[in-house]
Amino acid sequence: MKEFMMIFVGTPYEELGLSPEQMQARMGKWFAWSNKMESQGIAHRGEALHDAVKRISGPDRVVGDGPFVESKELVGGYYIVKAESVDDVVEIAQGFPDYDLGSSVEIREIMVFDQ
Predict the structure, then answer these.
(1) What is the pTM of this model?
(2) Rg for the chain (alpha carbons), in Å?
(3) pLDDT at 70 over 80
(4) DSSP letters along the chain, please?
């Protein structure tokens, strides 16, 4: 089995103007999806991320605060999952609960280095 990272990209719920009840309903969908993956032995780990961002860049290691003006979307969280192929992860990602909000899932295979 390989490991893949599913990266969740979208607009924060607060910026979408969701009510507390709508946010609670969204969280219920997230928990249901997470529990389903865990019961199937797919989900290895994952976390939600806060909106605040620090970015360090360039040879002078300039530190900037985000979210950044040029970006309307944020990485809101990730899951590490185990699967045979990226196509399997595409299938797993069908359960992502926020497609209807314009959010997306980026899938990246995790590199394994021989030591």
Answers:
(1) 0.86
(2) 16
(3) no
(4) -EEEEEEEEE--HHHHT--HHHHHHHHHHHHHHHHHHHHTT-EEEEEE--S-EEEEETTTTEEEEES-TT-S-EEEEEEEEEESSHHHHHHHGGG-TTGGGT-EEEEEEPP----
